[in-house]
Amino acid sequence: MVLAIAFTVACLCLPIAHFTPKGMGLDAEMFNLWIRTPEGGVSMQSSALFGVLILTATIGAWTIGGFRNRPRQAKLCVSKHAADSCLVCACCLLCIVRRLFVIT
């Protein structure tokens, strides 16, 4: 149980994407809370995703710890899946918005 919670916290700190902006040639890194630009700057455009990830990680850790109360654990699993679905929808919307409004 402790390992699952430790891995959840560690995954929140790892980079989730590397991408190369058009015409730049240098890689940018996307973390859960910020985007590190090739010049060394930091953009907080993805910080809304971090809030959703914190919510789902907290519910997941609480679900893992609630093994003694099975009905509550089942309800938490359902709410975690709903929050995960919201995360996927938020990622899709972010990609669509970024394609519609190209930021240069």
Low-confidence stretches: none
**Fraction of residues in β-strands:** 5-15%
- CA distance, first residue to last residue: 45 Å
Sheet with the most strands, sense and barrel status: 4 strands, antiparallel
Report on this structure.
The chain contains three helices and four strands; from the N terminus they run αββββαα. The relative contact order is 0.11. With 104 residues, the chain is of the alpha+beta class. α2 packs antiparallel against α3. The radius of gyration is 17 Å and the shape is elongated.
Topology (elements, then pairings):
Layout: H1 2-13, E1 17-19, E2 28-30, E3 35-36, E4 42-43, H2 47-65, H3 70-100
Antiparallel strand pairs: 1-2, 2-3, 3-4
Helix pairs in contact: 1-2, 2-3
List keywords for this structure.
single chain, about 100 residues, alpha+beta, 4-stranded antiparallel beta sheet, 4 strands
Compact summary:
This protein is α+β, with helices and mostly antiparallel strands and about 100 residues long.
